[in-house]
Design goal:
six-stranded antiparallel barrel
Length: 333
């Protein structure tokens, strides 16, 4: 019995020493990041740093945080910032932002509130520091500007997880629920005046390929180059408008996508009028496009819905033989 007691005490002492080591390492790392930011010309400061969560996790709390780039005039301030690591998995990091933050730009003073705003990062315990999983979650997000505009989001989530078959591929999911005012945000002009101010939902699932895995080299400035996107599913609902998409494209070294995507559009006539009014489609081409879409819709059981086979190639997007416009350049900054 005494030996068991000694063993328990020994384990507790070892674990306590390990927890102190991890917490101390986090303190040193955060102080170094702040110092490096200041050396690079940034304002990077916090009033105090505390650690808690013993024995299961290390929760470091930065109090009175300020981060600013004098060159761009952008600054961020928050009462606190929590960084949490499980005791047994110090490469799984969660950053939890406070319910209220302040962001200053040369144009606006923004007040950001939320019921939950957090980021998660899971790094592999290898010298290359491979990115296993990353994510951002926002709930009840409200962004208010001193210039009078406001943005609200009920829920938004972005997740990326390293593909089990190919470490260069990330399985990406993205979702948005109840975003407003969507029309102003996306600069949409509705000639009918019937479009709802709230975008109901967007859901995306895709496999995104890169030339190298995400890891230490990305943190050092060499970002992986996008090489392919396999769009498993994309759905969007905005009032009585709807959009769904599937397809696959490859991306060359210049960022030009090539491949095929099939869109299914609900209430396509209204969407076409909105696209023309918003400047997305040339009015001269709209009549030809409408004639082609009407022919495609006549083959559908629901004439307000239409399937659009899009081809991307040579820097141009085609609907059948009709060019719609240039393809976007898909290059990471």
């Amino acid at each position: 019995m005494r030996r068991l007691l000694y063993l328990v005490i020994l384990v507790a002492l070892v674990w306590s020493a390990y927890w102190i080591l991890v917490a101390g390492g986090m303190h040193v790392g955060l102080a170094r990041l702040a110092r490096e930011g200041r050396d690079a010309g940034w304002v990077a400061s916090y009033r105090s740093l505390t650690s808690e969560g013993y024995p299961t996790r290390v929760r470091s709390v930065l109090h009175g945080v300020e981060l600013a780039d004098p060159r761009s005039g952008i600054a961020w301030r928050a009462a606190n910032l929590q960084i949490v690591m499980p005791g047994l998995h110090p490469t799984r990091i969660t950053a939890i932002l406070p319910p209220r933050q302040q962001v200053s730009t040369p144009l606006d003073q923004l007040t950001i509130t939320s019921s939950s705003l957090r980021t998660d990062l899971w790094i592999g315990a290898r010298p290359s520091l491979p990115l296993r999983r990353a994510g951002v979650l926002a709930q009840a997000l409200d962004v208010a500007s001193d210039r009078g505009w406001r943005l609200r989001l009920a829920r938004g989530q972005l997740q990326a997880q390293q593909n089990a078959r190919d470490p260069r591929t990330q399985d990406v999911t993205f979702s948005v629920q109840r975003l407003s005012p969507a029309a102003a945000l996306f600069r949409v002009r509705d000639p009918d005046g019937l479009l709802a101010q709230t975008l109901d939902s967007v859901d995306l699932k895709a496999e995104v390929g890169f030339d190298t895995p995400w890891g230490r080299s990305a943190a050092q400035g060499r970002l992986p180059r996008l090489t392919a996107i396999a769009l498993t599913a994309l759905t969007a609902r905005w009032g009585d408008l709807g959009l769904a998409a599937q397809g696959r494209v490859t991306v060359d070294a210049q960022g030009r996508p090539a491949g095929d995507i099939v869109l299914r559009v609900r209430n396509w006539r209204r969407m076409l009028r909105i696209s023309v009014a918003s400047g997305w489609i040339d009015p001269d081409a709209a009549a030809r496009i409408e004639g082609g879409l009407a022919a495609l819709a006549s083959l559908s059981a629901t004439p307000d819905d239409v399937n659009l086979p899009l081809h991307l190639g040579g820097g141009t997007i085609y609907l059948g033989p009709v060019p719609l416009g240039p393809t976007p350049r898909l290059i990471l900054p």
